[in-house]
Design a protein that fits this description.
The complex is a heterodimer of chains A (293) and B (137). Chain A is an alpha+beta fold. Chain A has six helices and ten strands. In chain A, a hairpin with a 2-residue loop joins strand 8 and strand 9. The termini of chain B are far apart. In chain B, 17% of the residues lie in helices and 58% in strands. Chain B is α+β, with helices and mostly antiparallel strands and 137 residues long. The chains are: A alpha+beta (293), B alpha+beta (137). The A-B interface holds A 109, 113, 116-117, 120, 124, 127-128, 131, 133, 141, 143-146, 195-196, 198, 200, 202, 205-208, 210, 212, 214, 221, 223, 225, 233-242, 259-261, 263, 265, 276, 278-279 and B 1, 4, 8, 11-12, 15, 19, 22-23, 25-31, 33-39, 41, 49, 51, 53, 55-59, 94-96, 98, 100, 128, 130.
């Protein structure tokens, strides 16, 4: 213990006579101060005073070591296997005599680690959101240039009635696959003619059954596509440009609307079916979405 | 304390790597291709199969995959499969296409593939890439 009248040019003598509780309060208060406002020199001095007082008190109340050792062997060693090596006196850790300075350091370290962890988590969450990932419940993620789904979405019951004639064949393909969710639009812009369906069953490799229909009015082309996830493997990446993505919710289903070199694309998930409509004229987007079900 | 610091640094590294992976997965928007996907699966005895699917915005004169680069999971290059040797990697006059090719690797080795898709019309062409997950041959 330092029994000088100060440290450097400073006078800390008055702290030698202060009650222990007051000194502990000073330390607590210092713990909450900012780095600039804290006084580490004073805290070191107070900690040494407290350590000295605790040592003196411990020495006064020190139990007999041999008696403690015998009691420890009697109470704690009965459950040990017979062939296990008996602990020595050096194995006993005297937790009661850990200095307050070390105790405070441990608390400070834990607090620092917690602070770093929270900062990393916060920065990570912000960074992730900036690139389109909602860490706390995402089904979609996107960057400025790609979009993809990571898990399924809400389920909307299918209505196969009043389907536009261009989509009849597609609706039959969906029903053949047992799709019972509402994913077909009941409205299409005027003047678009059927331009063929495609179908690929990659359930054994990609984990998906894909189908789509092409519609054209001669100058513009719309593709309505459905990818039925047969397991969790399939991951499609959609090309997109850096125009801000819009999330439009309709009948409790979020629709992700973005553009790819200026052409619109709507992407959404209903149950295990990933759906997209590309090439819709901008003025028709919401009318088509409202008709889906 | 050293273990704690190591754990924090490891967490930081993994997190930043995850974010960077997402960021570097991005390429440019594409004038012809809407979406694409690919996977690599084991066929047994060291044989691996790379399956891909691609969907274009419109009917393309040529659509599919131009080349597939195969790498070991540590990033070391193994080989490239070209459409000139595997004609089924490309098709003509299609809006969507899907196919697969196989490669005889080493049993127990971990592989992933970088697939370079291809779409062309009379007006031009594009070739975006897609990186698969890792598979044990």
């Amino acid at each position: 213990m330092r029994n000088t009248y100060g440290s450097g040019n400073r006078d800390f003598f008055k702290y030698n006579h202060m009650p222990t509780e007051v000194l502990e309060n000073i330390i607590r208060a210092d713990f909450y101060l900012s780095e600039e406002a804290a006084d580490p020199e004073l805290i070191d001095y107070i900690l040494e005073i407290l350590e000295g007082r605790k040592t003196s008190e411990a020495e006064r109340n020190l139990p007999d070591i041999e008696e403690s050792w015998e009691r420890f062997k009697k109470d704690r060693l009965v459950m040990e296997p017979e062939d296990a090596p008996a602990p020595t006196k050096d194995d006993i850790i005297d937790f009661a005599n850990i200095s307050p300075k070390k105790h405070l350091n441990v608390i400070r370290r834990i607090a620092s680690i917690a602070a770093v962890f929270i900062c990393v988590l916060f920065i990570g969450t912000v960074a992730a959101y900036a690139v389109g990932i909602d860490l706390w419940g995402s089904i979609a993620q996107w960057t400025e240039e790609r979009f993809s789904f990571r898990s399924g979405g809400p389920v909307q019951t299918a209505n196969y009635e009043d389907i536009p004639p261009q989509l009849i064949e597609l609706s039959e393909m969906l029903q053949e696959q047992g799709v019972a969710v509402g994913i077909l639009p009941h409205y299409l812009p005027d003047g678009y003619k059927w331009d063929g369906n495609t179908f690929f069953d990659n359930s054994d490799t990609l984990g998906v059954i894909s189908m789509d229909v092409g519609l054209t009015n001669g100058s513009n082309y719309i593709v309505i596509a459905y990818d039925i996830h047969t397991d969790g493997r399939y991951l499609a990446e959609y090309e997109k440009d850096d125009v801000e993505l819009e999330i439009y919710e309709c009948k409790n289903v979020p629709y992700y609307i973005f553009t790819n070199t200026g052409d619109s694309i709507i992407v959404w998930v209903n149950g295990n079916v990933e759906c997209s409509i590309s090439g819709l004229p901008n003025e028709e987007i919401y009318k088509v979405i409202e008709s889906i079900g | 304390m050293k273990k704690t610091i190591s754990a924090i640094l490891a967490f930081l590294f993994v997190f930043m790597f995850s974010i960077n992976t997402v960021a570097f997965a991005a390429t440019m928007a594409d004038p012809y291709i809407s979406s694409m996907s690919g996977t690599i699966t084991s066929e047994g005895n060291g044989k691996i199969k790379i399956t891909f699917s691609v969907r274009a915005k419109n009917t393309m004169s040529t659509l599919g995959v131009d080349s597939i680069e195969i790498y070991k999971s540590d990033g070391s290059y193994v080989t490239t499969l070209y459409s000139s040797s595997y004609p089924n990697m490309l098709t003509t006059n299609a809006r969507s296409y899907s196919s697969n090719v196989s490669y005889n690797g080493i049993s127990g080795q971990n592989y992933y593939a970088i697939i370079t898709f291809y779409a062309s019309t009379g007006g031009g062409s594009s070739s975006p890439t897609y990186t698969t997950s890792v598979c044990t041959a």
